[in-house]
Design a protein that fits this description.
single chain, 398 residues, alpha/beta, Rossmann fold, 14 helices, binds cytidine-5'-triphosphate
Length: 398
């Protein structure tokens, strides 16, 4: 699907520049034409020779010589590709882009291009969290720049946190989505997935058996149709979808905040198994046996219903809000009532009675409830269920 397309790859100055070499290899394998641009700082981390040898192409650098200029001017270069990718996108490169500076080849290309730009930010966690960087990210997003990552993890500087550049395969998937001309191109869709964990004390939590497989399958299917997906996930065991923006949360409250932050969106799919309750008060220290044989009384309060909250928003309600329901009895009756109670447009109900193997399993047998009534879907894999749902989303948003 992306074979034959061209990517202008700007490699900024960060330790993760080495991962961009692997990205070039993945793009080459997919027959994507890579035109590499290495900033001066980038060339401190990877050599121009390695980059151009891997890309099998002329390397453009900050030291733009006259010969190159006569071969291809910077305006033409910025428009010759189908997509401009910046990986790693340093805090400095992004700040310059926000202000429209054009003081080196990379920033000039970014200013001159009429193509979509995809950035893979990479920096120290403090730099990432700095309000200036966060402001810049906001502005870039509003300018239509696509983002992949950053991820959370150990950093080269010895710290831990958000700021690691997305892995080459994640960036590749984001490139694939950006280059795809699927029917959901330009549509932003929020997907919740997985369980939530509600802490009891520092070592214990309330949880459920949701694997997050259905949510990942839905997000994968949406990305494959060209959608921009924000995937808000609790601590799920299923792999994360590729090419989506991933927001990792733990509790229902964090999930609600992340979903509201991700709006506006064209559609929202609530496949998470959100805990209905959390502890009224989380104990700051580990609960101990007191010797009386009496277990502690765990006082709980209800969590906000995220699906209902979003369904009933006056401002920023997505055009299409889709809920899920896990039922054991009178599936159609309960699901029909639940759709009306929650105010969502569609509800996908699953029979999770013991013995069906659906909760935490790989298959699903769904009943699809809309304004028009209930439709029984055949038992099929969660991926096929996702494809069936995404087909309906495509029809509705087209
Ligand atoms: N949901 C949510 N926030 C919650 C609880 C549920 O967004 N706090 C969403 C789920 O993601 C799912 C739908 O609501 O899309 C249905 O969840 P379910 O647990 O089946 O329904 P409940 O409202 O909890 O009803 P009950 O447990 O009484 O069946």
């Amino acid at each position: 699907m992306i074979a034959g397309k061209a990517v202008l790859l700007v490699i900024g100055g960060g330790i993760s520049a080495y991962k961009s070499l692997e990205l070039i290899r993945l793009l080459q394998k997919a027959s994507v034409h890579v035109v590499p641009v290495l900033t001066r700082a980038g060339s401190e981390f990877v050599t121009p020779l390695t980059v151009s040898a891997l890309a099998g192409n002329k390397l453009y650098s900050e030291l733009f010589d006259l010969t190159a200029e006569s071969e291809m001017g910077h305006i033409e270069l910025s428009r010759s590709a189908d997509l401009v990718v910046v990986a790693p996108a340093t805090a400095d490169l992004m700040a310059r882009q926000v202000h429209g500076l054009a003081n080196d080849l990379a920033s000039t290309l970014l200013l001159a291009t009429d193509k979509r730009v995809l950035m893979a930010p990479a920096m120290n966690v403090r730099m990432w969290e700095h309000p200036a960087t966060q402001r810049n990210i906001d502005i870039l997003r509003k300018d239509g720049v696509l983002m992949v990552g950053p991820n959370e993890g150990d950093m080269a500087c010895g710290e831990y946190g958000l700021g690691r550049m997305a892995e080459p395969d994640e960036i590749f998937a984001a490139i694939e989505a950006a280059l795809s001309d699927g029917p959901l191109k330009g549509k932003r869709i929020v997907v919740t997935s997985g369980p939530t964990h509600e802490p009891i004390d520092p070592v214990r939590y309330l949880a459920n058996r949701s694997s997050g497989r259905q949510g990942t399958a839905i997000a994968d299917a949406l990305v494959a149709q060209g959608a921009e997906v924000v995937f808000v996930t609790g601590p799920a065991t299923a792999p994360r979808p590729e090419g989506a923006k991933i927001v990792e949360v733990e509790t229902a409250l964090q999930m609600r905040d992340a979903v509201l932050d991700a709006l506006p969106a064209d559609a929202a799919v609530f496949s998470a198994a959100v805990a209905d309750w959390r502890m009224a008060e989380e104990s700051g220290s580990k609960l101990k046996k007191d010797g009386s044989g009496e277990p502690p009384a765990l006082k709980m309060v209800e969590n906000p219903d995220i699906l209902k909250t979003v369904s009933k928003l006056d401002v920023d309600r997505p055009r299409l809000v889709i809920g899920f329901a896990a039922e054991t009895d009178d599936v159609i009756g309960n699901a029909t009532a639940k759709r009306l109670r929650k105010g969502c447009d569609w509800l996908v109900a699953n029979d999770v009675s013991p013995g069906t193997g659906i909760m935490g399993g790989t298959e699903n047998s769904a009943i699809f409830v809309t304004d028009d009534g209930a439709e029984q879907w055949p038992r099929m894999s969660k991926r096929n269920t996702a494809d069936a749902l995404v087909d309906r989303i495509v029809e509705a948003l087209a």
